[in-house]
Structure prediction request, 190 residues.
Amino acid sequence: MRRITFDIETEGAFLGNGDFSNLEVTVVGVYDSDTKKLTGYYKEDLPKLWPLFESADVLVGYNSDHFDIPILNKYYAGDLTKFKSLDLLKEIKGVLGRRLKLDSIAEATLGRKKTGHGLEAVEWWKQGLKEKVMQYCLDDVAITDELYRYALKHKKLKYKDYDGVREIKLDTSKWEETGDAPALNHTLPF
Prediction:
């Protein structure tokens, strides 16, 4: 099963109410489970990213169904929302009934924090620190993929609460099912 774990960074004004129309992609980071490599793409390199997404059995992210995929879809000729995806935040919210920050999950589960946060990445981009934004994005991808693998193995993730560290039990039984789906996603208009 080919898993592509990914994250994006953006620039622009967030209009609220889930309207990301003014946000533009700056960087996309991916981890390919086949090659075991982290790779970064700048906005102008997106055409090189699409074949990788199209060959994936599943796209994995954190808040990806709500944020990353809709924004990336503005640049893709097909429909990324039709690809099989697994959004770790959506899985967590489905159990807890609330959203948790990636940093909280990473610290409690993996014992390490993120290397920054999204608003810092926006500022770094404005300052021309493109490589710093790329590294931050790739660090988030590595954390997300490690959390995915941890959850798959242990059937849970952890988070810090006012009472200490708590567990989130997850049903991972269907995460790596491919069913009859083809390895190549066909969503491009012909």
User: Anything to note?
Assistant: The first strand starts at residue 3 and ends at 11. The CA atoms of residues 108 and 159 lie 5 Å apart.
